[in-house]
Design brief:
Blueprint (H helix, E strand, L loop, with lengths): L2 H35 L4 H25 L10 H42 L5 H9 L20
Helix pairs in contact: 1-2, 1-3, 2-3
Length: 152
């Protein structure tokens, strides 16, 4: 059997296995985080978690398939190990970047929800009012801009 075909087969088995393992791990661990982000709405958290896992599979397995073709010929075991290390290292980096991107986006959603909650009933505004005696309403966006005075 050709060494290139053997290398491709090993690459596919390891890459698909890593993708499935990472997706399952993120799905289990991410469920609690999503419930916090979505303020305890379990059904919505489960649905979003499932959609994220499907998207994760599509992006990663698509990348694995596109990255299958090698740049050169593989004649011996050394070439096979070198090709596998480059391919698997790249797949691992892509998995890591996508994971960090997911965590970043979910954390931004969580922070926005916490900020909105702070101005809602029982939120941070009431606590601030008790401490300072003043009412802090929601921040107001600028209505317009002013130009600097002439000569400034």
């Amino acid at each position: 059997m050709d060494m290139t075909v053997v290398t491709y087969a090993i690459y596919l088995v390891i890459s698909v296995g890593l993708t499935v393992w990472v997706a399952r791990t993120l799905s289990r661990s991410g469920q609690v985080f999503l419930q916090d982000v979505l303020r305890g709405r379990e059904e919505l958290a489960a649905a979003v978690n499932h959609l994220l896992v499907v998207g994760f599979y599509l992006v990663n397995l698509g990348f694995v398939a596109l990255y299958l073709k090698g740049g050169g010929t593989i004649d011996n075991a050394r070439d096979s190990v070198e090709a596998l290390s480059v391919k698997l290292g790249t797949v691992l980096l892509v998995l890591g970047v996508l994971h960090l991107l997911n965590v970043y986006v979910l954390n931004r959603i969580r922070q926005r929800g916490l900020a909105d909650e702070a101005y809602g009933p029982g939120g941070g505004a009431q606590r601030a009012r008790k401490v300072s005696g003043r009412d802090f309403g929601p921040p107001v966006h600028p209505q317009s801009t002013t130009r600097p005075a002439p000569g400034v």
